[in-house]
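On clarity, I found the account of how folds are encoded harder to follow than it need be. Since the whole study asks how a given chain folds, the encoding of that fold should be made plain. For illustration, here is how one protein appears when written out as sequence plus structure tokens:

:::
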Amino acid sequence: MSNASARPRAALFVVLTLMLAVLSVPSWGAKAASAASCDTGTNLALNKTATASSLEGAGYPASAAVDGNTGTRWSSQFSDPQWLQVDLGSTQAICQVVLNWETASGKAYQIQTSTDGTTWTPIYSTTTGPGGTETLNVTGSGRYIRMYGTARNTGYGYSLWELSIYGSSNGGGGTPPPPTGGSLGSNVIVFSPSMTQSSIQATLNSISDQQVPSEFGTGRYELLFEPGTYGSAATPLIFTVGYYEAVAGLGRNPGDVTINGTVDSYNQCSGGTCNATTNFWRSLTNLSINVMGMSGCQNGDDFWAVSQAAPMRRVHVNGNLSLMDYCVGGPGYSSGGFIADSQFTGGTVTNGSQQQYITRDSALDGWSNGVWNQVFCGDPGAPAQSFASNSGLSGGPPPYTTLATCPVTREAPYLYQDSGGNYNVFVPSLATNSNGPTWTGGQTPGTSLSLNTFFVVQPSATVDQINAALAAGDNLLFTPGVYNLPSTIAVTRPDTQIVGLGFATLVPTSGDTALSVADVSGVTVSGLIFDAGATTSPSLLQVGTAGSTTNHSSDPVSLDDVFFRVGGATAGSATTPLVDDSNDSLLDDVWIWRADHGAGAGTWTGDQSPTGLVVNGNRVTSYGLAVEHFQQNEVDWNGQNGTVVFFQNENPYEVPNQAAWMASASQKGYPALFVPNSVTSFQGYGLGSYSYFDQGADIHNAMAFQVPQTSGVQLHDLLTVFLNGSGGIDSVVNGTGKAVSSAFGGPSDVVSYP
């Protein structure tokens, strides 16, 4: 995201060597590894990526042979040879293959394995295949498994209702499942009320000094406060939160941890300009703040001046909260934020220079103003709906989009200690038509999971170990660090919890998808950053299976505080960072960013990535979605009955010329949000797109939003803004809405469409 003058943002790289006190973290009992055996209860191929040499027709895709549905099938063309291939995501030890043939079966075929999808090794061969259901006991290993047919039993093609693959019960290519529980590692710092305040303050200050300037560094920290009170009116606890610092209370509810003082994020200054437009990747969760202790300009406020990827969840602020920093360098721009499941008493929230913001299911005691796009969803005390055709312009009303309730929500999981000091992860329940915090009327509804149900992942863990843990039915808790992944982490069991601490970061190193989630219910992915690697990945996170008709509405997949980067920290490329094929899934605070500064950024040929998000699932609901700087359609929303509550976008900066950026021969540029004509139902609320073309060329985007013109597709409160540079956006949606350019910077507001 850019500041208002849209100056390029230089990354700061400052490495401070600090001696941090290593605080002891309890250990928990370990689960014993089981002996290897053929696990015929776990179909390793189920909902994995399948490809084939050919199809009989569009109704017989390769995926139909691994979807668990014996009413659908893959069928090939009527010729030899033909093959069906499955990517298991990582190397697995294979002990059994089951072929459920339709009448058109294979007579001569091999079962082959491969580690790279290129060089194949036969592990079974026959020239007398009988058809029907064939159960083949085999010995071999590989990431890729295929049926390679050379002769057929009929004149038709090869046709499989299902291809099932089974491995050893310990999964991971013979890797035993690792112990669950265990140490959270040295970068999880746990504070207790019994510690001296001076030691707590010193540790917080030393981490902050290191992390505040380290935008693209590798340091990652989870700062946890055990239940109790920290600081006092006489000696308040005051500290600043920098990059990759996740600050959280360890109580069951926010009131169990109280900080008397402030927890702050301030402007950063470069070249005499001070803004918070690059204050990303930090969080504040599950505690209470009694605001006190500052003096001078900062007296009386807690400052949380942040932009994207900096959520505030389950926080009670008693006093004033400012979402901008008006002291360090004067009022500085901030560019987007996310608050959920929180309460504000005894003061007001000052939006100030925040250009756009979403507040969800939070109780407000006042809200000061709006700039371009402020969205409230299920917030008692929120300002009334006031978005108008001149919002954001002189004399116009505030750009408030206010929804009384949120259609369907599930709060993010969080770590806490029970009365015995044991660690658990609490998974909140699904809610419909939610309004207000989940915890102010009693305990948050949900389920508590012992840490002994989690493989506590350290950066030294291998993908085989991680997949073995998943195959054994364990959840994953990623400790702070950067994880380089040579193959895919594959989640295949329903209700698996994938939780990241301290902005744990997953980086595919071999062009694979970093994490895939099968078409199952109830999986949660939270608190992770996905970075594109040097070799192009088709996606960084794949959720669900394309074309699935499974209804997950009673227990959807949830992505909470999940962030994607193509470039910035490391040069990389990805075709589509996030592909969501899961029906009924929830996207709650997701930022997908093709970097405009940092490694690989600044040129049209750097950090290649056409589209940030593709949604194929039906009934998908998103809150706080930001997708920026991708090179074609930034979001393709293909699913029916989708809902987006708050959307923020910037067009790519470095388009070299108009010819390089054309959606068609007659359409200049690409939309930020594209909904194809096949979609008949979609709702969008509070949608903004901005331009800053910085190459000096006259670049235009014909429309920021492109949707079917039908009564079932409705957009509410949408806008465009010209930040700086050249060219501009010619219309808001489908040719409707005033152009923004150097002649009229906007915002150009459209209250409703059609």
